[in-house]
Design goal:
By secondary structure, this protein is mostly beta strands. It is 0% helix and 58% strand. It contains no helices and 15 strands.
């Protein structure tokens, strides 16, 4: 405000704008930041008499990544003492790349661990899978195999985390449920069975 004559002309005369942002000659700051960080800069306004006014600004640019995880069991139902595969997929819905992506899996109760995808490590009753960096829009499939040793229902839970803030957390965990059946079925009326 003030000065002589309008419009003013604006320039960034100290510091640096966040990458991806630009300042127009009429003072419009616009664009899409492409890097996270804290950016300090000064803007100078010049009037028609070459008088100037300067102000300093700071912009904090953070990254966010909406991670989602889904899972399923196969085969379902499964026969007791047979292999059961739990498939887990983690997806970065963006808008930023996600770093330090980790998928934690609680191994099913009543099952023995057999194997897992590369990058996964069994720690007690947990399976920790280090995915690393996941670009926006990218997904990674993981899987592990267990052998159920008890009849009834079986559940496998997985959840995902990363270094970036996640704006939507309801899709960060998933539980897959299945059934463990005996290797044979006892007929309700054995006398009705006819030997063919």
């Amino acid at each position: 405000s003030g000065g002589t004559g309008t419009p003013y002309s604006f320039t960034n005369n100290a510091g640096s704008l966040p990458p991806g942002l630009g300042l127009s000659a009429v003072g419009v700051l616009s664009g899409k930041p492409t890097a996270a960080g804290t950016f300090g800069f000064a803007i100078t306004a010049t009037d028609s008499s070459a008088d100037i006014g300067t102000n300093s600004y700071t912009i904090n640019v953070t990254t966010i990544a909406d991670l989602a995880v889904s899972s399923g069991l196969s085969p379902n139902p499964v026969t007791v003492d047979s292999n059961l595969t739990c498939s887990v997929t983690v997806t970065n819905l963006g808008p930023s790349p996600a770093t330090g992506v980790t998928v934690s899996n609680s191994l099913p109760v009543g099952a023995s661990f057999v194997s897992a995808s590369a990058g996964c490590t069994k720690i007690g009753d947990m399976l920790i899978c280090n995915v690393g960096t996941l670009a926006a829009g990218a997904g990674v499939p993981l899987s592990y195999v267990v052998t159920p040793t008890a009849l009834g229902t079986i559940s496998a839970t997985a959840w995902v985390s990363a270094n970036e803030a996640d704006p939507i957390t309801v899709n960060n965990s998933t539980t897959a449920d299945g059934t463990v059946n005996p290797p044979f079925t006892v007929a309700s009326n054995p006398k009705a069975i006819i030997d063919g």
